[in-house]
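G., before I forget:
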Amino acid sequence: MNKPKVAIFDFAGCEGCQLQIVNMEEEILDLISIVRLVEWREGMSEQSEEYDVAIIEGSITRPQDEEKLRQIRERAKILVALGACATDGGVNKMKNRFDLQEVKQLVYGADSALPHLDSAPTKAVDEIVQVDHKIYGCPIDRREFATVVRSLILGKRPEIPNYPVCVECKRRENVCRYEYQEICLGPITRAGCDARCPSFGAWCFGCRGPVDEPNAQAARVIMERYGKRAEDLEDRMQLFGHK
Amino acid sequence: MSARKLNQEVFRSWVNELIARRRVVGVQAKEERFVFGPLAKAEDLRLDYDVTLLPPKKYFLPPRDDLLAFTTQGEYASRIEDEPFILFGVHPYDVVAISQLDAVFSEGHYDVHYMTRRRNATIVACDVQTASAHVFASAMNTATVQDGFDLLLTKIGDHYLADARTDKGEALLTAVPGGSEPTEADFAGREQVWRRNRESLNKHELKCRPEELPTLLENSYDDPIWEERAKLCFSCGSCNLVCPTCYCFDVRDDLNWDMQTGMRTRVCDACLLNEFSAVAGGHNFRSRPAERYRHRFYRKGSYMPHKFGFVACVGCGRCISACVAGIANPLDIYNRLIAKSPEIQAPEPAASPWAGSAKELREGGGDGRSLEMAARSGGALSPGTGLAREAPPLPEGTHSEGVQASRTIAQLEAALPQEGFLLPGAALAPEGVPSEDIYVPQAATLVQAKPLTELETFYEIRLDSGLELGHEPGQFVEISLPGFGEAPISVSSSPSQAGTFQMVVRNAGNLTNALGQLTAGDRIGVRGPFGSEFPVHDVMKGKDILLICGGIGLVPVRSAINYILDNREDYGHMTILYGAKTPGERIFADEQQDWRKRDRVTVLETVDEPDASWHGHVGRITALLPLIRIVPENTIAVVCGPPVMYRFVLKELKTMGLADTSIYLSLERRMKCGVGKCGHCQMNGVYVCQEGPVFQYSAIREVMEAI
Amino acid sequence: MNKKVDIHHITRVEGHGNIVVNVQSGVIEQVEWQVPEAPRFFEAMVRGRSWEDLQTVVSRICGICSISHSLACIKGIESAMRIPVSEQTDKLRLLAHYSEQIQSHVLHAGYLVAPDMLGAKSVVPLVQTHFDVVKTVIKLHRMANGWSDLLAGRTTHPITFKPGGFSKIPSETELRALRVTLADAVPDLTSLVDVLASLADQLPDFERETEYVALVQPDRYTFYEGQIGSTDMAEPTSLMEFESVVNEYVSPQSTAKWARWHRDSYAVGALARYNLNSAYLKPLAKDIARTFDLETRRHNPYFNTLAQVVECAHIVESAVELIDDLLTAGLRQEIPHVEPQAGEGVGCVEAPRGILFHRYVFDDQGRCTSANMSIPTNQNHGNIQRDMEVLLPQIVDRSEEEIRLWLEMLVRAYDPCISCSTHYLHVEFV
């Protein structure tokens, strides 16, 4: 089998999604049996300018990174956005809610005017280049990553859920977080995580971003039913870049 | 059959003994709620539970259920879970729900995956001890139950009355010595529990009798309530997923890392989800939340009663708890509709449930009003009455095999060899029980694959078995590609063509794109043929035939065209009207030339968007109709094309004087399973994969979602 | 003799870092450790966030030490709002924290450093040449990840940590199973130790004594609580004063902020912890330290990796004891109940790569009004630079290739986690 060449690139992020690839453990051996990893800075020293599939982790926060991303897009036949930072901007998008000068001032103080501290508003990968496939989540779910890779090798468009987390949460027989009077983003968030947070007793933070047609208005309306305010909901929606 | 009275101590040792001998799943606490789970010891059993988060159907229809293992070489091996187990502590309303699922999965195409699990189950029912916050079993006549289980436990004071109703139940009860012979007083105590439960499991009230729901819904289709409530709907499917009577599923393929082997798995699906009715081409037949929201209430209160003879709501109240928006309560909806429907009357105040069971009535059990009430109810539609009742008359045009075709578990059990309680797994296929897996495709080989247009490919296929497909014009098959799944594809060749069959596939989704890569000699899987056919053998005979096709709508119709041409003397004049979007998208252009040359055949074509090469008609297909002349009373019309086309064509045909009974439509839907189980192809109550895809227009005129 | 080493984005480290060396006619003109990681401004972004959502946000500072960041955050919130925590909660948290140390140490030693020691560019060729080693590393890593999954709900970005307690705790059955897994891991650990011990001589023989800073606690080798200890100080310093320890400043030679305390740089991480706390290592860990001859190499930064392996053994032994304690006491379901209040607090734990500080201020609604975080990798950058300045003259006669490898290995030995370095700057290169 002619193995497709895969390169993994990282931009602004915590590298936790790449770590999920490492966390595949034995399955990494399976992975490299069907693809050739040609560049993966976090895991190996080799570098390459030739690849079929480029996997992009992280959000884009600087003009020079936009340029690098465009170059990657030109070289790659398939470009995959890996994880919430790449697909939606992720937690880094919270920065955009502040005045950029003020943010820099706060973190760097007197040094904030230095030119190398330049930072632009956070962008998701598809705000700059065309993205062929998105693997959602913060961090990604490694089983989903594996499924997506196998689908792409097979020549099949990966089947990413477009229904709310509630579907998986119900299948896992969790007690609904709303029964505990908590604001859970499950009803408007894209499934695929197997409702991991509610299964561990926490509300859904919406890390996979909204489904294609989220009923966000209903989410605001029902806050009253649970003695909450719409602002509290919106607050939580901002964490991973929900609108 | 015997009954025993067990004190707490005997009860516990009995349960522990069952656990020691067999896999037992029972009700246990999870946080502040309850679930069915593998039982490790009697102490964990919580028969005082109110309701479980998920109904016990998860043991028959698991959220993820591996159907078959496959290889990319096209081999399929059915995966059947065949391990006996005891399902302990099922409340009466859930027993009724299981009986309903039994009907669904044994009816017509027998689902060996569900049914094997079901046959392996020994159901220990348990009368409700604590009413849940939203239970309304009283209203649905499911507060008590007299069949559909093997053994019934009722807590009376400090004791359990254990009553075996089947051989399996008997074997369970006699597995351990102990307990005492129940007295008259014990049975009287149970009567009291039943009476109490029939009245007290009533946290919500239904202001009509359940069997009146189909009538109620007849006139409520366009009620503003659907839009109004659906504004709050998240399309999250929670109401479906926790429902003990919902059973729709999706099927997906996953490859292993070797890229050679994989698993075809069904997962619980939900008709409230956005893409439930979307087809590969992108059209979503129920794209609006209000449509999906309404569908659920109609399914429970109208479609299932018409098809199976029972209201598919057992009053467990789970959907009410599960819906974060608070819009899932069926009684709330039904009561609001009742308030607007003067013809539906509220039941008599404090009416006791009338259901009971045949056995109970025979034995003179139950309260005195049972018999009278059962008679009054007409017997058919209340969920508590089990399966074996006669289905009500169906609305004009729908045809269903009804419950007659279904096998109840009792019937199946009768066919089983007497299984000792402690014997290992039930034999997979005892005599009289189907063993064939309806989901396993048969192997076939592509004889020919050639591009027809930029988007469509033409295939000729031979079954590896050497047998004929045996289809009729208009039917479809499920084409299977390991790793990609299945897709419904119309057969395009005439049954008169021997040895092979043909189809045309538009690249629209994962499977069809992959199919587009295949060449002659490649293998595929085939299930079917499925569905209804064009009436070439009767209705169409001797008649003039008018065939109106848009785009790839010509594909299934070609099967009829060629059949008619092969039996030319049996039919009158044949007119073929064909419309394509562009000249490049015309299919079977060469063949159309041949058709034209045949005796008494007219072929007219039009395109929407002409190019320089095109010299024919331009415009919608309806523009061709004025160009032809028909004798309405001697013409049978067939229409097949994209969803938008039907409405306009039907209007024209009507003005041309054609009766609705003379028009046949071939409709596209998401026919995922092909065997009337998965629920995706439903138009209102009609399963397109079973009753369609070919419909007489008069039969579906009132089916709102059809056109 | 001119040499130019320009390692743009050093590989097999978490985050982006560059090494620039310029030697003109044998004279070192430039040797710099630079960090071009895109800044992410977490301290600014968390302003206005609710105490309930804070851990979720700051966990995302780093994918590798997310459990440490989460614990520092939760402890910071608890200190600010004076939220009491049960003994059980502390024990379960420590157990979760241990799992991250193993996760991270095995990842670092096995996946990132071992290829250097075995002469490979990554772990991938080792699958062919040293399959048994790779298998052992994978097995240990999987064990640690399963452990994190159980306690934290996920290996990366924990779910179960809440101010005041846990959203979900494991069952006693699960803890018992974990105990078995831990005991099973000991032979794997010792076989990994054997391999590393046989290769230890291949680590550069380089020493530079510096100030070592880590959490200290009387009578134990601590990761989770204590005060700030230094090899230059007899008495520990209070956590509340961490800013006076870190003393972040801008170096005249680099635009990156560095840290210094009693000298012009200090080191944090496994070697620092070893240097301060080795007396309290468990027996197996002490044996392994002897095997590596760590005591005589305690000022060799390259041996930080081996100190991590020693810690792995210590943690496995400690975790088994911890589980026994928990099981003896019996697990209780405790529902945390917190009324938010205004206040200021500091949370501090040892991340796998060194001491980590978070400080938060909350208003009376429990919204964060300001935050400050000091990250271990930040604290090490200055020390990496100083090491390079001392190391380079010693090896300047070697080949460019060798200089490059030694410098890269030096940076890797510190196990830098550059994504963490939220203060860090972008640098233009020569």
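Residues 421-430 of chain C have pLDDT under 50 and may be disordered. Chain C touches chain A through 61 residues (CB under 8 Å).

More on Monday.
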